[in-house]
Specification:
7-stranded mixed β-sheet; alpha+beta; 7 strands
Length: about 260
């Protein structure tokens, strides 16, 4: 007997929806006693809790398809699988890794990490990428946290940019601050939406069916990670017709130039 549609689809993702939230909570609980502050721990638990709603909604959609309430199409399947993969990615991004306490301060040279990330992004997407990266810039952030910021920014750009799209990234020193500007091309959120982008669970409403819609958690994760590194984040329109994410970190040290 063939397994139900929901079971088949979830097998393709490698986990059940319930396992995703339970595993993530248990993993974080195991690390929370190392050196994580109470505020950090509570914030991460809140982020995980907030993800239960979109997970439940995706599961409901799959069950509706299985029960015949909603029509099944290959495009529906691809969209739902993409949603689940995105949610898995966001849950993974919340987890501390390499047995490092989330709030432990480490001076990380981020220029090379950024350049390596942009090289991979250029190879894996159709984006036309330009950059202006000042070398030898260090900030107090764990490497895994900075990489996850970049992963979430990239995911947001890929999902909310018209094909083939362009991206300009700059990393500069400004007095005792480090400024990271992540500027992608059209479309752009409305002025009203700019104030909602960093909030957990907010999701832009898109009308272009050719664009892959995300789960609405990526920029919220970026905001949380930036805050944990004592940084500041803002969202603006840009000359490319898209979104600029401006992130300021305290400067740790200068090595050159």
């Amino acid at each position: 007997m063939r397994p139900p549609i929901t079971e088949q689809l979830l097998r393709q993702t490698g986990n059940s929806l319930a396992d995703l939230t339970e595993d993530s909570q248990s993993q974080f609980a195991a690390t929370s006693g190392v050196a994580a502050t109470k505020d950090m721990y509570l914030e991460m638990r809140k982020l995980i809790h907030d993800l239960k709603l979109p997970l439940t909604l995706v599961n409901g959609e799959l069950e509706a398809i299985e029960d015949g309430v909603r029509a099944w199409t290959p495009e529906t399947t691809r969209t739902l699988l993409s949603e689940i993969e995105q949610l898995k990615s966001m849950l993974t991004a919340m987890m501390p890794c390499e047995h490092v306490a989330p709030n432990e301060s480490t001076a990380t040279e981020i220029s090379c990490l950024l350049m390596a990330h942009l090289r991979v992004l250029s190879e894996q997407t159709t984006l036309s990428i330009t950059h202006s990266v000042c070398p030898d810039i260090s900030i107090n952030i764990q490497p895994w946290a900075f990489k996850r910021i970049l992963d979430n920014l990239s995911s947001n750009t890929v999902k909310y940019t018209y094909h083939p799209g362009c991206l300009h990234v700059s990393l500069t020193r400004q007095q005792q601050k480090v400024l990271l500007l992540w500027q992608d091309s059209a479309p752009a959120p409305t002025t009203e939406e700019l104030y909602l982008l960093g909030k957990q669970g907010y999701r832009a409403e898109l009308t272009d069916h050719e664009m892959t819609q995300g789960s609405g958690t990526g920029l919220a994760n970026v905001t949380a990670l930036v805050s944990q590194a004592n940084g500041e984040i803002s969202f603006q329109h840009n000359g490319f017709g898209g979104l600029t994410v401006a992130i300021k970190f305290p400067l740790t040290s200068l090595y050159g130039g």
